[in-house]
Fold this sequence. Notes:
Layout: H1 7-25, E1 28-29, H2 30-37, H3 41-54, E2 57-63, E3 71-76, E4 82-88, E5 92-99, E6 104-111, H4 117-134, E7 142-149, E8 154-156, E9 159-164, H5 178-186, E10 190-194, H6 195-206, E11 215-220, E12 224-230, E13 233-234, H7 272-281, H8 292-297, H9 301-325, E14 329-334, H10 338-355, E15 365-368, H11 375-389
Parallel strand pairs: 4-7, 7-10, 11-14, 14-15
Antiparallel strand pairs: 1-3, 2-3, 4-5, 5-6, 8-9, 11-12, 12-13
Helix pairs in contact: 1-3, 2-3, 4-5, 6-11, 9-10
Amino acid sequence: MLRGTNLKFANSYNLRIVLEVIRLYGPMSRMDISKNTHLTAQTVTNITKKLMETGLIYESDRRQIGRGAPSILLKSNPDSAYSVGVDFDKDHLNCVLVDFNGKIFQRSCIRLDYPTPAEAMDLIVQNVNALIEKGAIDKKKIWGIGVGVPGPMIILNNSIRANAINPKFFPGWDKVPVVQILEEKLKLPVYMENNASAAAIGERWYGEGKHVDSFFYIFFGAGLGGGVVINGQLYPGKRGNAGELGYLPFMNNNYEQNLSDEIPHLGLHFDLKRLYKKLEKAGYKINEPSQLEKLFLDNEPVLIEWLKNGAEQLAQAVLSIEYLIDPETIFFGGRLPESIIREIICILKDLILLYRIPDLKQMPALKPAAAGVDATALGSATLPMYNSFAPVPSLLHKKTDSSIKKLKTGYQSI
């Protein structure tokens, strides 16, 4: 469907553009903002006045350039907005409280074992409220709660408020409207995203992707996932599951097929439960990713073989990402220790050179993501900020009656 726009939506978009420029490149003068955004000086003056009234930006230092009065520099205000990120999976619940600049103020980590929906919702509510109370943050400054869950998600009733976790991986979670339940309990806007896409948004908003227009994020969680950012915006796909490369089939159909009746797919190589079982046979009791680092540093043969086998299969997927999307960078992040992620990247670089078409001179940069093991929690905390402040092109569209409406909680989008 093609939609027009009007001055109201254009003004909202420009407001966010100015805030984004200040957030990314500030402190900066109004003249510099005008040059960077191609907006008139008068428009910039009007917009920055509104942003200062909301408290999102403030006047900081003065800078002398040449003759005349020094320029007043504008800077984003970290204390103006906060959000809580929730990283939820079958075995853990990690929550973080962050400010507008992405600084983590409070965090909580809980080990889980396949909680029921009622148990999980109560735990999330308790932890979110505890972080806000412990951080002594006025709830009016909380712009929302972001929840990252393993993909693929299921969209119910064509509404994000009824998004559900895939019951195949969460038995007993069939058609549980997570967003709707949490919004009713917390009285705050709630945004849910698959964990890989949440991590990609976090990388774009706060990490190494701040100045990268197009990238792919390869996410190591309980398995393997991915998120896609194109022209600075998350590309979710029709059903919110774009980038789910873990379900790519692979040709070696004999790979541990006796352990599962599933169709062989890339994610099987990075299934941590399978790795833990292998290591248990070798005499190691492992139940979380952080415990893998010592084995890696000790050059444990089972783990090293797992890394090499996984990288060999992943190399084909990385080349496919390059050829199909042509991203500037491919980031690697998630729950695996950074030392292991760097080793995977190192192996991949050598493998890709063997398979890559020589005529393509420049390949995407392969880099570890910035957030480390906090990737999903920080990325989830970014969701309210992203939805409230990011200059996404959809802002220019006239809204229809079927558009999702925001909760009336004192929260306002700019």
